[in-house]
Design brief:
Blueprint (H helix, E strand, L loop, with lengths): L7 H8 L11 E2 L2 E2 L5 H7 E4 L8 E2 H6 L7 H10 L3 H5 L8 E2 L8 H15 L3 E5 L7 H15 L3 E5 L12 E5 L2 E6 L1 H7 L2 H12 L11
Helix pairs in contact: 4-6, 6-7, 8-9
Length: 218
Amino acid sequence: VGPSGSGKTTLANLITRFFDADSGEVLVGGVNVKNIAKEDLTNAVSYVFQDSKLITGSIFDNIRLAKPDADLDEVMSALEKAQCMDIIEKFDSGVDTVIGSNGVYLSGGEAQRIAIARAILKNAPIVILDEATAFADPDNEVKIQKALNELSKSKTVIMIAHRLSTVQNANCIYVFKDGRLIEQGESGELCKQNGVFATMLENYLTSVKWKVAKEELK
């Protein structure tokens, strides 16, 4: 967690080698990522962005990008775990429905659930979630959260989040500011320190209680 521009996504990009660190090391399983074959590293990590992109093609093809040899049963299982069955059922062609150009269009929350289904099918041991619920409406957010819980089972999960409620139960919370790690620990420990995280959490909890009042015109 941390303010916008504090380095959260940059750190995640170093893990996946979207670019490399100028100094220091990023280790996965005790091995420097620079010494891991890119294909092996790609297979070890699933990445769900805040605005996941889908290809022009069928829903089935979009899911199977993660595992090209997957059969229909595997794809349907991933869709079910990702809370996508309502999406499939509303189209006459089901998983063969074409999305994108000359096809149907999905809402941001629906597209995000399809992207999570793809990650579930991939079944990589490391999952990076970069603001995965940022653009979802309330109904989709509930379904996306259930899908993320399914995706995260028995995985190492690195979650980047603005909504602090989504990280309060994390094993360890890392707080970034101006490109530096300034605090780390469980939520309770960080709150006792009365530092940056405690202030962020207080501000967050205050903001979710805000209400828009109706002003009567006289």
